[in-house]
Amino acid sequence: MPRLYAKLNNAHRFYTLAKAVHFKERATCTVTQQGIKIAVEHAGSVQATAYLQQDMFREYTFSPPVNGSDAYVFGIQLSTLVLVLAPLSVSDGSLRANGGADVDADGSSGRGARGGLSASRTGATSLILELTDDETLLLTMEENGVLTTCRLQSLETETQLHLDMAEAPLAYKIIMKADWLRDTLQNTIEVCDTMTISASKPPGESAHFCVSAEGATGSTEVDFTSNVDVLESFSCAGTLQQRYKSTYLQYALDALTLATKASVRANQHGLLGLQMMISVDGAGDQAFAFVEFLLLPTLSI
């Protein structure tokens, strides 16, 4: 019996969430009774995590470790995972597999380099994930009775960056429409390699959330007040202004494109958290997956 057996009706959902955090070659995968977590980090300053909760799977069977732990933790080659799933996950549809090719961990096929695939478009491809006793991750994609299997060998886990929003009191928290946040960050990223993000609540005034940047090509500033329609909620304990690397914020744009809502929060040490809520096809009528980015500031102001 595998340590994990999980089935999705649509492989595209798994692909898009994995791709949303794919800015490094390797990732750490954590499998628990509650679901699957894929975490990526860079330069000790930014951490991204995709949460695939149990309720987004049509079937989910988890056998806990015999050592008393509640999780299996192992490294995976995220680039290979995304490469293998990409041809079968285009635009919520898929590409038809001509034969039941067995795909190795380098993304190649037993029939030749990805030779079992053609560009004939069909409906969504189902995906089965299995974690074996030796922590090999098996991915089986099925469409119209045709199976494609990929084996990803687990890797040694790397030392994980520990970023915890709870280590300091929360300075502000905003829930807003994801597309507004995406457009704001996109426009600001193009101006300068660092951007300033601030929140304040002057006495007797509405709370303000501001994203700005100034560079050789010009400057930009987008200011939101707590009473605008794009903000669902806005709580602010005082004033906080910090600078963050634009490159790291750019990593979050793919996830924001998928999301309907986004949460922006920061603690009083300046740790910034962006959490995106993404609607997915689950076992029930409605299910959501979450992608979270945590970023350390580059400079206190």
Structure characteristics:
Proliferating Cell Nuclear Antigen, 5 helices, nine-stranded antiparallel beta sheet, nucleus, elongated, 2 domains
Account of the 3D structure:
One of its GO terms (cellular component) is checkpoint clamp complex. InterPro entries: Cell_cycle_checkpoint_Rad1, DNA_clamp_sf, Rad1_Rec1_Rad17. Residues 99-119 are annotated as: Disordered. It comes from Thamnocephalis sphaerospora. The chain is mainly β and 301 residues long. It is elongated. The protein has 2 domains: 4-153, Box (Proliferating Cell Nuclear Antigen); 165-300, Box (Proliferating Cell Nuclear Antigen). It has 5 helices and 22 strands. The model is unreliable at 91-122 (pLDDT under 50). The chain has helices at residues 11-20, 78-85, 178-189, 246-250, 253-258, and strands at residues 4-8, 26-32, 35-42, 46-53, 59-62, 72-77, 94-97, 102-103, 117-122, 126-131, 136-143, 146-153, 170-177, 194-200, 208-215, 218-225, 231-236, 240-245, 261-267, 272-280, 287-295, 299-300.
